[in-house]
């Protein structure tokens, strides 16, 4: 049965090549078309190459703020009407922001492709950025920050890690940014940010699903072709000095009762081969109950309530974060020692061929799943073009994972995962005795 499943999955991977066409309008807007008539739906999505790292250090949170603000309305879509138009025409929509980019999309029945294209062109060409919209979204963002960060257990984990891992790069602040910065910003500053970044030559448009290509091209030219090219964006390069000795830090969180120990390592850009090897390492160590750390520290030794690791991959640098919740009488130091022992094992012993095959099967499964919907395909196409500069990675990245060897896993673990290259953060409950 296992062999049959592997063969079936391998067949699915090889058969699941994503065919696409790409071209660029005169104004610099890159267009990617992916035709799939298997379901009568179509997605129109626009990804802008602007994220939290493009902000003024005194005005953090702008990119995420615009994720909200650009739903406020346009010259031809009245305030409060955007979502009504989408749902009234059988569609759904959403947006999200990272440190590196901002992404908007609509999914409609196939017969509403023109509507989706017009709406995204309106967002780019005619956004209404006024004080009413800014004030409204300011309250929305403040509530989001309260829910996700301020009042959420372990909500300050990522912000605290970022602050300590980056001293020069804008990755040091969170995507949601500072509420004080947003409060202090003028309307003109918001308008200038829009004019600088939300332009055709800083974006990629993806249309995926069931549509007629020739008709789509006509509509794209009609609605997006008239938008003027913006001024070229000058991008700064920020370099971090290597971490050469352990950074020790402590944070008190009033929302938790169980302490957490965190070990974090700075890693290379997600575009590098080493970043993919680190993905494998993360999976070996902590992905699921059969992973090495979970099996040893949670199941066998009962030293932790929970253990985990993940790669926080980004365009310029990444962060590899390991964490554990000690179970008494075990301490944070005990957990860290066990984590280190498993890392040393990866640095000195080759993983077995059986483990390697298991990794490859898991990534094959992720690949199939990530391209199983038009939403997944559209976002992957946009990401690979905008951040990786190679759209065809949607088809070939899985081959990179398949080419990773046990020797590479050992060498990459040696290169990046050493005690003198990391942050150790004691993330603990607030000490109420001091209150």
From TrEMBL:
The keyword Transit peptide does not apply. This is Zn-dependent peptidase. It comes from the Bacteria. It comes from Flavobacterium granuli. PANTHER family: NARDILYSIN, NON-CATALYTIC MEMBER OF PEPTIDASE SUBFAMILY M16B-RELATED. Belongs to the peptidase M16 family. Transmembrane segments: none annotated. GO terms for biological process: proteolysis. Keywords: Hydrolase, Metalloprotease, Protease, Zinc.
């Amino acid at each position: 049965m296992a062999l049959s499943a592997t063969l079936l999955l391998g067949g699915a991977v090889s058969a699941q090549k994503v065919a696409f066409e790409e071209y660029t309008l005169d104004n610099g807007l890159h267009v990617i078309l992916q035709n799939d008539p298997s379901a009568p739906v179509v997605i129109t999505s626009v990804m802008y190459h602007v994220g939290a790292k493009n902000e003024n250090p005194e005005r953090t949170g702008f990119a995420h703020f615009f994720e909200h603000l650009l739903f406020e309305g346009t010259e031809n879509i009245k305030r409060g009407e955007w979502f009504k138009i989408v749902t009234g025409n059988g569609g759904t929509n959403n947006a999200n922001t990272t440190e590196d980019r901002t992404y908007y999309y609509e999914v409609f029945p196939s017969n509403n492709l023109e509507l989706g294209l017009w709406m995204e062109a309106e967002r780019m060409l005619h956004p209404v950025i006024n004080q009413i919209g800014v004030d409204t979204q300011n309250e929305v963002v403040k509530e989001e920050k309260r829910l996700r960060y301020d009042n959420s257990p372990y909500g300050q984990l990522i912000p605290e890690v970022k602050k300590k891992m980056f001293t020069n790069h804008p990755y040091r602040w969170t995507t949601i940014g500072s509420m004080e910065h947003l409060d202090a910003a003028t309307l003109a500053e918001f308008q200038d940010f829009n004019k600088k970044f939300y332009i055709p030559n800083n974006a990629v448009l993806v249309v995926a699903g069931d549509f007629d290509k020739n008709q789509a091209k006509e509509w794209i030219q009609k609605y997006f072709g008239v938008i003027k090219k913006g001024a070229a964006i000058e991008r700064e390069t920020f370099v971090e000095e290597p971490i050469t000795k352990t950074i020790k830090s402590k944070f008190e969180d009033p929302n938790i009762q169980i302490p957490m120990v965190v070990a974090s390592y700075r890693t290379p850009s997600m575009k590098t081969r080493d970043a993919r090897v680190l993905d494998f390492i993360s999976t070996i160590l902590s992905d699921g109950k059969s992973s090495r750390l979970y099996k040893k520290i949670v199941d066998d030794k009962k030293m932790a309530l929970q253990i985990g690791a993940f790669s926080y991959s980004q365009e310029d640098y990444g962060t590899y974060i390991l964490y554990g919740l000690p179970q008494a009488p075990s301490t944070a130091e005990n957990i860290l020692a066990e984590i280190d022992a498993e890392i040393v094992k990866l640095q000195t012993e080759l993983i077995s061929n059986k483990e390697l095959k298991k990794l490859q099967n898991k990534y094959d499964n992720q690949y199939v799943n990530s391209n199983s919907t038009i939403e997944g395909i559209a976002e992957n196409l946009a990401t690979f073009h905008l951040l990786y500069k190679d759209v065809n990675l949607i088809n070939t990245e899985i081959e990179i994972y398949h080419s990773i060897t046990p020797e590479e896993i050992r060498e990459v673990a040696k290169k990046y995962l050493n005690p003198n290259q990391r942050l150790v953060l004691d993330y603990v409950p607030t000490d109420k005795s001091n209150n």
